[in-house]
Amino acid sequence: MSFSLLLITTFFVGFLSYYVWMWTYWMRKGVKGPRGYPFSGVTHLFRNYEYPAVRVWRDWTKEYGPVYGITEGVQKTLVVSDPEFVNEVFVKQFDNFYGRKLNPLQGDPNKNKRVHVFASQGHRWKRLRTLSSPTFSNKSLRNIMKTVEESVVELMRHLETGSAGGKVLNMLDYYQEFTLDVIGKIAMGQTDSMMFRNPMLPKVKSIFMEGRNYLFLITGVFPILAPLFRYVFSRFPTIQPAFDIMNIIEKAVKARVDQREADEKSGIEVSGEPQDFIDLFLDSRANVEFFEEEAKDEFAKVQITKVDKHLTFDEIIGQLFVFLIAGYDTTALSLSYSTFLLATHPEIQKKLQEEVDRECPDPEVSFDQLAKLKYMECVVKETLRFYPLASVVHNRKCMKTTTVCGMVIEEGTNVQVDTWTLHNDPKIWGDDVAEFKPERWESGDEQFFQKGGYLPFGLGPRICIGMRLALMEEKMLLAHILRKYTFETAATTEIPLTLVGRTTTAPRSVNLKLRPRHSD
């Protein structure tokens, strides 16, 4: 046998052995779970847009119990639906689980220049989180309230036209137009409403649609190919929606930077509040010092370097990208599910309308009035229990070997929460778990679920940073709609909803009628 042939044979055997070793990880640990196949593990089972991963996990949980192991390409993952286990990972042992499960196509969170607060980890995450948090403070939300309401008023005009004559509307389409309009104004420098004529919508929508997840399958199985894909997409961004959107964001940020520099040279002083997130991020400062620690190996001395308290140009692009994507999709879905549940529970809808009429009598809805909509908060919370949105991202990566609830979890292992099972567990919620019951929240949160049993926006220090903005948008729009209309089901309303999706779980459609309340 020639040396070349021996080398090829050795490489092939080693390559094959590595994948078989990874595939048999949970078998060797004695942890039950679906096995799938060498190389892919069970990743191929998550490609069905018509049967989202959250439903697959729920099926497996029924078969294997609240803790079981799967392999996803070269990643090993524990799927859990035990609230104590979840609380331990997300809250109590956050220092051991501060990373997220990421696909290699998303880039190395420690090296990617455009890493955002969702994907970053360690000191970089802490720095990005601190610099981004003021964007979602009460002060910032009050400042953008008028912008949100302008989009609400614009949507109301479209709803009035679309629902004339008792026409059936797919409310999901309308809510997607609304949320993209809001996030375009507050994050992207968009000056006027672009509802139903926004060229960004198809690009953003395609990220969540069917047919794109083959890239995640390929790079999940063969991570070595991820840098090649990223290089190609960075050179030719229009062939991949996420990179195309980042390219558009880059142009918007560059235009704002150029404008600010030109104004400064001309002696123009810009006073007042920042126009949008771009201005906020360009002006970002952290009021604390952070340090990065880097060790080349376990014996090397730790190198400590100061971290700049400004966001870099590339980091601004990354932040705007994740806020654009998340702000568009999850809020539109929450609105859609809330609307469907109100339409199918008219007595709850009537009670909510009475609260809105009482607390929001003026044409404009103020920030303080929104805070008084307590029953609406209950409706939204219960909706998010029924339909947890981006539950695929409710995961953590073990950064240091530790023990959780008596189980040793090795460094590099992912923990994925089966949120749909948690949110429908009668041991947590009671025998009426299958009922849509907003009243269960009226006496407060802690009385009705164990810690770790409810996480529509995640849990612990990495809880969704945009949660308050999303809730403000939803409450504002629902208040305006419910003052004027009553949601009703139609012949084409899917009951129950048909759920589809990849990263998020969406209804295929939410077809409803809007009956003007003056006809009540």
Describe the structure in your own words.
The protein is α+β, with helices and mostly antiparallel strands. It is built from 19 helices and 13 strands. Strands 1-2-9-6 form a 4-stranded mixed beta sheet. It starts with a helix and ends with a strand. The model is unreliable at 286-307 (pLDDT under 50). Heme binds at residue 464. Cytochromes P450 are a group of heme-thiolate monooxygenases. They oxidize a variety of structurally unrelated compounds, including steroids, fatty acids, and xenobiotics. The chain crosses the membrane at residues 6-26, 214-233. GO terms for molecular function: heme binding; iron ion binding; oxidoreductase activity, acting on paired donors, with incorporation or reduction of molecular oxygen; steroid hydroxylase activity.
**Low-confidence blocks of residues:** 286-307
The helix content, as a percent range, equals: 40-55%
The total count of strands amounts to 13
Give the termini distance in whole angstroms. Answer: 88 Å
Structural class: alpha+beta
Q: Concise description?
A:
Its cofactor is heme. The protein has 520 residues and is α+β, with helices and mostly antiparallel strands. It contains 19 helices and 13 strands.
Q: What descriptive keywords fit this protein?
A:
Cyt_P450_E_grp-I; Cytochrome p450; 520 residues; iron ion binding; 10% strand; alpha+beta
